[in-house]
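WARN retry 2 of 3 for item q-0093 after timeout on previous attempt; input resubmitted unchanged.
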Amino acid sequence: MAMSAVARETVFALRRQIAKIEGTPPERLQAPAGAPLDADASADVTSSADLTIVRRGLAAALPDAFLPTGVERLDAALSGGLPKAALSEIHGGQTRDAGAVAGFALSLTSLILKQAHGLPVLWIGTSEIFGEAGFPYARGLHAAFGIEPGQLLFSEAPRLVDALWVAEEAARMTALAAVILEIRGNPQRLDLTATRRLHARAASAGRPVFLLRQAAEPEPTAAPVRLIVASAPAVPRATVAGPLAGSIGRPAFTITIGKSRTALPGQFTLEWNPDERAFDERRGEEKRERAKDPVAVVSLLGSRKDPAAASGAVLAFPAVVGSSATGGQPPPGQRATHFGPRRAG
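OK item q-0093 returned
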């Protein structure tokens, strides 16, 4: 018992020293009973029996230091929610999860704008990621999240180094409610040093910075929290008479705590209520496991036993004299418009 208590005291002393060096965001540590506090910790100790240490860097954490999601179990696991003055990571494991990651980020943006007092949110990305995942739709922003087009600003950078520069400059501005940086994969330039700079700017300005990483693998960063987001199957819409068969309910997300200094790993299924602009947790019988590969991404071999039926009549353009209605091709002057290059924007 004595050796265990000494080991715990040593661990907590090391954690306080590391946090002091890194300048971490608000965090709660459970100290062992009777553990001495070093003079350099500069931590505030509550009068509770478990000696909970609440601190933000070298100062005590403020009551509004966290952005609560509104889901009691998730907020409790994160010790109050996502830290406001910090860098937080939101990961998508695959490219097809880009919509779910962006939707979850927009949900958090909606919660932030409720307390922003008119300040906008800046969304930064490279041409690569915006070309791959696209931009949010203005009418959808208002209908699903209550976000006006003027409240969400976009900055498209040609290269990652330019996007990082814009993010670092924007992270220290108090004229923004939050900063979102969206990238793809695990680029070498976004290393531990780059995330430390983003985290330090966010802590200095007291504003959250969200790092959206599409199709990325977890790697060491300065962010104290990492959430892994994937889409969850929607349940039928609830009506007075019960679930409406064949209908599609509210958007749902599977949230996994991949990294947190105050929480153990856990998984939650959240639904976004577009009417209340709030999250609800799906629990009990409504919870379903995510379908595995619901859409085929590679076509079957041509030598399969049941080949597809022949295509029907071509309706995109009139039949050409001398060719069959099912397989004729138009002359060069009558090529369909979808064969031409698409207009960007």
